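Good morning C.,

I know you're traveling, so I'll keep this short. The sequence:
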Amino acid sequence: MNAPAHFDTPQTKLTPTPADLTITVRDERFNRDTTPRRWWAGEPFGTAWHNALSATFPRGEAFFIEAVKAHRDGADPQLAAEIRAFVKQEINHTREHIAFNRLAEDHGYDIKAIDRRVEEMLALTKDRPVIVNLAATMALEHYTAMMASEFLANPQHFKHADPEVRAMWEWHAVEEIEHKGVAFDTWNHATKDWSKWRRWKLRNLMMLIVTFNFFRNRWIDTLDLLAQDGITGGRAKLGLLKYLLVSPGVVRRIFPAWIAYFKPGFHPWDHDDRELIGKYEGEFEAALMPAE
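The tokens, ready to paste straight into the viewer:
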């Protein structure tokens, strides 16, 4: 295992991102052996929801990387350092979710069907303006950051999960918090000549579109996976709604952070939740190394 590196962003504070932010690339590996079929406390709804999420990550995170890299020219030193760290973290996330998805397939789940749907959706983005892809990435990165913060702040989300799987999701969550402002700062850089109104309008319109597509597609994907477990009809839908909205209720809990995105002047680092990272850094201490 290659030990991860710290990326300390330069101290010139050109964005609302904390000037002392450290983005650490943790080269961790998980799920190379085996996990239970229903790894989320033996419960099908959490297992299916997170399996559906994981199935989207390999292609989705490659899309994020390309969307951000397309606008890195002319970036100031702080943002350039953030982008380099972001890319390295996302590459590692992709690798680990490929391994996790392979285990899900070994348990008999048709994960490739979800991957094909993601591939078809991403094909539709090829001919649209790259700034629109960046706006979509910015919105989706806000989703990952919201869920990451919720998962780390409320351990009940993975309290009874298989330890290896829980470690992977916590590792992923830590790094999503660290780089949660990168796509947003890249957007501000790419649209620096736009009016505030134009920025706000496209940013929020894309969030509404992303929200609709995100929940529609994850709902369909999760119900498909539940059906593969023999859970269908009203039982599947009610059980999934309870999981998302009641207990542990991740969607209900992230709603205030979702609303905040629409505020004029919003930035992901308006809420500095780096203390959540400190709760888990001890688990990765052996993997840390000085900056390159």
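Safe travels,
E.
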